[in-house]
Protein backbone atom coordinates (compact mmCIF):
# COMPACT_ATOMS: atom_id res chain seq x y z
CA UNK A 1 0.00 0.00 0.00
CA UNK A 2 1.07 3.57 -0.70
CA UNK A 3 -0.01 6.77 1.01
CA UNK A 4 0.24 10.31 -0.24
CA UNK A 5 -0.70 13.91 0.40
CA UNK A 6 -0.55 17.40 -0.97
CA UNK A 7 1.88 20.05 0.28
CA UNK A 8 -0.52 21.53 2.87
CA UNK A 9 -1.61 18.02 3.92
CA UNK A 10 -5.26 18.96 3.38
CA UNK A 11 -5.66 16.15 0.84
CA UNK A 12 -4.58 12.67 1.90
CA UNK A 13 -5.00 9.47 -0.08
CA UNK A 14 -4.01 5.83 -0.18
CA UNK A 15 -3.34 3.39 -2.99
CA UNK A 16 -4.22 -0.20 -2.16
CA UNK A 17 -3.06 -1.78 -5.42
CA UNK A 18 0.13 -1.83 -7.41
CA UNK A 19 1.49 1.21 -9.15
CA UNK A 20 2.56 1.05 -12.75
CA UNK A 21 6.09 2.02 -13.73
CA UNK A 22 7.32 5.58 -13.30
CA UNK A 23 7.20 7.66 -16.45
CA UNK A 24 8.93 11.01 -16.90
CA UNK A 25 6.63 13.19 -19.01
CA UNK A 26 8.33 16.09 -20.81
CA UNK A 27 5.23 17.51 -22.55
CA UNK A 28 4.75 21.26 -22.41
CA UNK A 29 1.61 20.92 -20.27
CA UNK A 30 3.42 18.87 -17.61
CA UNK A 31 6.20 21.47 -17.64
CA UNK A 32 3.71 24.25 -16.98
CA UNK A 33 1.71 22.26 -14.41
CA UNK A 34 4.84 21.29 -12.45
CA UNK A 35 6.90 24.44 -12.99
CA UNK A 36 9.77 22.12 -13.88
CA UNK A 37 11.23 20.30 -16.86
CA UNK A 38 9.01 17.21 -16.47
CA UNK A 39 6.45 15.44 -14.29
CA UNK A 40 6.95 11.98 -12.82
CA UNK A 41 3.80 9.85 -12.89
CA UNK A 42 2.66 6.28 -12.41
CA UNK A 43 -0.67 4.67 -13.25
CA UNK A 44 -2.98 3.12 -10.70
CA UNK A 45 -6.40 1.56 -11.13
CA UNK A 46 -9.20 3.89 -10.05
CA UNK A 47 -10.68 1.33 -7.65
CA UNK A 48 -7.32 1.20 -5.81
CA UNK A 49 -7.07 4.97 -5.32
CA UNK A 50 -8.88 6.26 -2.20
CA UNK A 51 -9.19 9.82 -0.93
CA UNK A 52 -8.92 9.71 2.89
CA UNK A 53 -9.23 13.44 3.69
CA UNK A 54 -9.76 16.67 1.81
CA UNK A 55 -11.84 15.48 -1.11
CA UNK A 56 -13.62 18.84 -1.06
CA UNK A 57 -10.25 20.55 -1.71
CA UNK A 58 -9.63 18.67 -4.95
CA UNK A 59 -10.35 20.70 -8.06
CA UNK A 60 -9.96 19.53 -11.63
CA UNK A 61 -8.86 21.38 -14.74
CA UNK A 62 -9.45 20.08 -18.26
CA UNK A 63 -6.03 20.77 -19.78
CA UNK A 64 -6.98 19.21 -23.12
CA UNK A 65 -10.17 17.52 -24.35
CA UNK A 66 -10.85 14.48 -22.15
CA UNK A 67 -7.77 15.03 -19.97
CA UNK A 68 -8.34 16.38 -16.46
CA UNK A 69 -5.61 17.38 -13.99
CA UNK A 70 -6.56 17.23 -10.30
CA UNK A 71 -4.92 19.48 -7.74
CA UNK A 72 -5.37 20.76 -4.19
CA UNK A 73 -7.25 24.06 -4.33
CA UNK A 74 -5.54 25.20 -1.12
CA UNK A 75 -1.83 24.69 -1.90
CA UNK A 76 -1.91 23.97 -5.64
CA UNK A 77 -0.18 20.59 -5.46
CA UNK A 78 -0.82 18.50 -8.58
CA UNK A 79 -2.23 15.14 -7.48
CA UNK A 80 -3.32 13.04 -10.44
CA UNK A 81 -4.64 13.08 -13.98
CA UNK A 82 -7.61 11.28 -15.51
CA UNK A 83 -8.51 10.52 -19.11
CA UNK A 84 -12.06 10.26 -20.48
CA UNK A 85 -11.07 7.43 -22.82
CA UNK A 86 -9.56 5.31 -19.99
CA UNK A 87 -11.69 6.13 -16.92
CA UNK A 88 -10.38 3.13 -14.97
CA UNK A 89 -6.90 4.71 -14.58
CA UNK A 90 -5.44 7.57 -12.54
CA UNK A 91 -1.95 8.90 -13.33
CA UNK A 92 -0.61 9.79 -9.87
CA UNK A 93 2.15 12.36 -9.36
CA UNK A 94 4.87 10.40 -7.59
CA UNK A 95 6.08 13.47 -5.70
CA UNK A 96 2.88 13.34 -3.64
CA UNK A 97 3.63 9.86 -2.28
CA UNK A 98 5.03 9.33 1.20
CA UNK A 99 7.08 6.46 -0.22
CA UNK A 100 7.39 4.79 -3.60
CA UNK A 101 9.21 1.63 -2.64
CA UNK A 102 9.45 -0.83 -5.52
CA UNK A 103 8.42 1.64 -8.23
CA UNK A 104 10.78 1.53 -11.21
CA UNK A 105 11.33 4.20 -13.84
CA UNK A 106 11.00 2.90 -17.39
CA UNK A 107 10.75 5.76 -19.88
CA UNK A 108 10.84 9.41 -20.85
CA UNK A 109 7.81 10.43 -22.91
CA UNK A 110 6.97 13.43 -25.06
CA UNK A 111 10.69 14.14 -25.45
CA UNK A 112 9.85 16.06 -28.61
CA UNK A 113 8.61 18.79 -26.23
CA UNK A 114 11.52 18.48 -23.78
CA UNK A 115 12.82 21.73 -22.34
CA UNK A 116 16.08 22.98 -23.84
CA UNK A 117 17.65 23.43 -20.40
CA UNK A 118 17.31 19.78 -19.32
CA UNK A 119 19.52 16.98 -20.61
CA UNK A 120 18.42 13.35 -20.33
CA UNK A 121 21.48 11.42 -19.22
CA UNK A 122 20.07 8.00 -18.27
CA UNK A 123 19.59 4.96 -20.51
CA UNK A 124 15.79 4.74 -20.21
CA UNK A 125 13.83 4.38 -23.44
CA UNK A 126 12.62 7.67 -24.91
CA UNK A 127 9.46 8.37 -26.89
CA UNK A 128 9.01 11.54 -28.94
CA UNK A 129 5.28 11.42 -28.06
CA UNK A 130 2.93 9.04 -26.21
CA UNK A 131 4.29 5.53 -25.60
CA UNK A 132 2.40 2.27 -26.16
CA UNK A 133 -0.13 1.55 -23.39
CA UNK A 134 2.07 -1.28 -22.07
CA UNK A 135 4.56 1.27 -20.72
CA UNK A 136 1.98 2.99 -18.54
CA UNK A 137 -0.20 0.09 -17.37
CA UNK A 138 -0.56 -0.42 -13.61
CA UNK A 139 0.58 -3.71 -12.13
Distinctive features:
Metal Binding Protein, Guanine Nucleotide Exchange Factor, Chain A; 40% strand; 5% helix; mainly beta; three-stranded antiparallel beta sheet; 139 residues; 11 strands
Describe the structure concisely.
With 139 residues, the protein is mostly beta strands. It has one helix at residues 28-34; strands spanning 2-5, 12-15, 22-25, 39-45, 49-53, 58-64, 67-72, 78-83, 89-93, 105-109, 125-126. It has one domain (2-129): Metal Binding Protein, Guanine Nucleotide Exchange Factor, Chain A.
Account of the 3D structure:
The protein has 139 residues and is mainly β. The protein contains one helix and eleven strands. The protein has one domain: Beta Complex (Metal Binding Protein, Guanine Nucleotide Exchange Factor, Chain A), CATH 2.170.150.70. The strands form two sheets. Strands 6-7-8-9-4-3-10-11 form an eight-stranded mixed sheet. It has a three-stranded antiparallel sheet with strand order 1-2-5, with no helix packed on it. β7 and β8 form a beta hairpin. The protein starts with a strand and ends in a 13-residue tail after the last strand. The mean pLDDT is 92.
